[in-house]
Amino acid sequence: MPQPPRLWTFRTSPFSGKVRAAFAEKGVPVELVEIDPVRRPGRLRELSPVNRVPVLELDGIALRESSVICEWLEDVHPDPPLWPADPDLRAWARGWAKWLDDHSVRSFFLGMRKMAFGMAPDDPEDVVERLLGRVPGYWEVVEDALTVHDGPWLAGGQFTYADLSGLAIAVRLVQWRPDLQPGADALPRVAAWLAALRERPSAAAIDARGPEKLSG
Ligand SMILES: N[C@@H](CCC(=O)N[C@@H](CS)C(=O)NCC(=O)O)C(=O)O
Q: In the chain, what is the greatest distance between 2 CA atoms, to the nearest angstrom?
């Protein structure tokens, strides 16, 4: 019997949260394997030599990189589609998914992680301020992006993986750093987009965790 897909994650990992939410958007059940991010179980490195999550363990293969796992999900469970059918719009949405992952999500979560768990020896003293200080400027970029297809989502009327890339930060921002939220007066589109993301039923997946924590 084929083994059901198992997703290795930890609750506060944004890239894991994106994948958990993608499964929720598709209505596809997935077994969560919760890891201790500080003392990672040895099995994780066997599945993925880079020792990072998320990892999707399938029958005989392990997939890593959140965007790649989402591509697998899209291929295997095409409905409802989470990319636009139009190739131009799809490429546009892919660009925003990547930009959000590489900039807003990375800066915010790396800054928060360094604040909570400490800096690396070679980090500049103000690394946390530098990382978190980029976030307000990123909201201005997203405000402009949201004007292109007239919302409510980045690609217009269809919710896509580009929006999913903003889901973890939308949820954690109000929990951890409400001061970094965009103001509704200055940046109405992005403020509305973040609020709409938090209203999505799949937003609950950002706080989901597996039944027991595996530790190394
Ligand atoms: N580009 C990767 C990033 C994965 C990643 O950085 N995962 C974090 C948790 S969100 C991690 O495991 N970090 C461990 C580390 O930095 O050692 C993806 O999208 O899956």
A: 56
Q: Is 17 in the pocket of ligand 1 (CB under 6 A)?
A: no
Q: Residue 127: CA atoms inside 13 Å, Cβ hemisphere, count?
A: 16
Four-residue CA torsion sign, 154, 160, 165, 171: positive
Which fold does the domain 6-81+204-214 belong to in CATH? Glutaredoxin (3.40.30)
pTM above 0.85, yes or no: yes
CA of 188 to the centre of ligand 1 (A): 31
Query: Does residue 216 contact residue 42 with C-beta atoms inside 8 Å?
Result: yes
With a 6 A CB cut-off, is 40 part of the ligand 1 pocket? no
**Is ligand 1 within 6 A of the CB of residue 13?**
yes
The whole-angstrom separation of Cα 49 and Cα 51 is 5
Name the 3-class secondary structure at 213: strand
pLDDT per residue as tens digits for the range 86-132: 999 999 999 999 999 999 999 999 999 999 989 999 999 999 999 99
Instruction: Tell me if domain 6-81+204-214 and domain 87-201 are identical in fold.
Output: no
